[in-house]
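Running this now, will post back.
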Amino acid sequence: MSKKTIILTIAGTDISFDPTPELYGEYMGQMAQGDLVDAAHNFVMQSASEDCKPALRELFDDNPGAPMQVAGALIKEYSPKVAISVKK
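Update: finished.
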């Protein structure tokens, strides 16, 4: 998968993300181990552009559920569902 910049508007602020297959893989691995909150926080912060990280930190300090919400939106855009069907 090529590099894909994703811009999400979060609480009125545009935040730029550059997720990679490696970050996605780490996120999935942490999720599989049951470390949901830390996995979401790490994926979001590691994917965010450096200049956007202070705004994310402030948002996360004010709303502990925000990392999960942002990670969900980011994953939805980064890895959209694929139509799969079984031929019989």
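Residues 60 and 66 are 6 Å apart (CA to CA). More later if anyone needs it.
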